Amino acid sequence: MLGAALWMACTGGGTPETRPAIGDPSEPPEEQPGNDTPPPPDDGDDPPVDDKEEDPPPQEEPDAGTPDSGTPDSGTPDSGTPPPNGGPRVPPDAAGWRFLGAAQGAPREVLGVTEDEGGNLWVAGGEDGLCVLRPEATTFKCFTLADGLKPWAPWKGKDPLPEKRYLKVISVTGGPAGTVWVGYQGQANCESEFYKAPGELEDPAIFKSGDADRVELQADGTIRVQHYDIHSPAHSVPGYGHREKLCTVNRIVWDKQRNSLWFASNHGLAWAEPDYQGAETCSNPEILAANAWVYIQRDAAGNEVGRETRQRCKFGVMEHVHPHIAMSATDSEDSRLAGDVWGVAVRPDGDVWMGTHIRTSRFKIMTNAVGHVGTGAPWNFEAARKQTEEKKHRANRIDLWPDAVAEPQIPTREQRKDDLVSDLVLMPDGTVWVSSFAWGLAKMNDAGAVTAYHLAGDRERFVSALERDTRDGSLWIGHRWGGGLMRMHAEGEFVSHNSVLGALSGLPVWDIQVVGSGDSRKVLVAFSAYRDAAGGITHRGAIGIYTGR
Q: In this structure, are residues 423 and 343 in contact, taking their beta carbons and an 8 Å threshold?
């Protein structure tokens, strides 16, 4: 379980706890029901079409085990509440769903699902790799390390030990026809391995694991892979030497308008060039100009003896930013509390909403007006980072589910109520819906103020994925702990789709993506696998494709 392992200091010093597998992105709080219901029905069972649902699990003390698989009865809201965009509320529709699984060669575990602009359906299949279903195909083709996937990077010109390489594809986002970006899970302790105490040997096979790839499907069915080594090379960031912190990529967002890529990762958010080809420097002249900085060399007496222009944007990446809080009164980086980033949404102005396990923030990468001399906005990553992280900008660190004390006070562990953000969605009116692995939904306005909370009940508050439906503006809501799938047409009124999902309603929903618009839109849902207490897959996952109203 992840639990306290989420909370890690910003850089070296102490040894942060291990970040476990993607199967456990949040330890259930004490109120979480235990594993007291049977697993989902066998894979061969057809989804039912009636409205009968299982009884909710009894409320017992937690055992921190495998999530409950029962199907809660969320109910169907009354028809009198008008939906937000004027369209009718839609009841569960079995005819609108199509499911892909073992019969189509899908991977055992489905952690992400997307479609590129050419209509290829891609699946993040965990240890089974990256899988694709072409429009004309009837079965998936899966790619692994043998096909060129690269969840590792060289260190000092050498490749880490091949026998230590580890493949787990956990996120995927579609791009131009035949292209996707793929996120990996790093090996255990990858965040802290580079920062061991003096005298202890660091293992590059661990701290260089994970990160992301751009994958291009070739005409002959093979793939072309370009790896993103998400790190800061020596002296590319003011005040730092070489830095290796981000290794697990939870979600990926493509901002096509600005040719930008965002990696929501363990410990922080990173930016990348979508069309990176492996060069040492980034290619966009505007970004290079905004992220150049001058290193001043001084002698022992403090006198300037030389200057050197350096570049932050290196190897197609700039990293990282996180809205951390203090763990102690010291001002060292070891006292900073930062959590995994899971929520990312690009605003119309190009700034980025980012939600983490600790705080939510607006990363002002495009609207920041105060930067280094001669650069300013937009694109100045370092200046925007300061407006999220510096003490004086605490108003830009939003505590959605508030701690007992607010900044600048330093909360004890008992005073914290960590937000555990799992996803966020930006609506056309500027509203931001934010989900939590533990606390349900929060509604935030464009200024970052929380205006409402929903799904706070014990059977519905473990939300793991969100997506806006481009057809009618409704909100799709996926649950982690056996809660299945909901859809919200009007604020506060939820329709459960569990009655037509059958066995899938008991599986975690890790990812929801919508492609297309109007009557041609598709809602893609990643129903992950069910694992036993030992971590073995007992009920495989599936892909859900909804084309109904």
A: yes
What pLDDT, in 10s, does the model give residues 262-294?
999 999 999 999 999 999 999 999 999 999 988
For 54, the enclosing helix (H) or strand (E) is none
Q: 334: burial class by Cβ within 10 Å (0-12, 13-18, 19+)?
A: middle
E strand or H helix at 496, and its extent?
Answer: strand 493-496
CB 140 within 8 A of CB 541: no
Q: Per-residue DSSP letters for 81-126?
A: SPPTTSPPP----GGGEEEE-GGGT--S---EEEE-TT--EEEE-B
Quote the strand ranges of 38-184, DSSP E: 97-100, 112-115, 121-124, 130-133, 141-143, 169-174, 179-184
Sequence-ordered strand ranges (E) for 207-301: 212-217, 223-228, 249-255, 260-265, 268-272, 292-298
Instruction: Provide the CB-side half-sphere exposure for 174 (13 A, CA).
Output: 23
- At 379-430, the pLDDT tens digits run 999 999 999 999 999 999 999 999 999 999 999 999 999 999 999 999 999 9
Ramachandran assignment for 6, one of left (phi > 0), alpha (psi -120 to 50 degrees), beta (any other): alpha
* 152: DSSP letter: B
Tell me if the bond preceding 242 is cis, omega within 30° of 0.
Answer: no
Please tell me the distance from the alpha carbon of residue 255 to that of residue 252, in angstroms, as a whole number. Answer: 10
User: H helices of 301-445, where?
Assistant: 381-389
Other Cβ atoms less than 10 A from the Cβ of 11: the count is 19
| DSSP-derived secondary structure letter, 88 | P
Which residue is it, tokens 């060669």?
Answer: 105
**Burial of 453 from C-beta contacts in 10 A (0-12 / 13-18 / 19+):** middle
The residue type of 223 is: I
Cα separation, 14 vs 371, in Å, equals 32
How far the first Cα of the chain sits from its last, in Å, is 38
**Distance between CA atoms of 250 and 253, rounded to whole angstroms?**
10
Q: Which residues pair with 333 in a beta bridge?
A: none
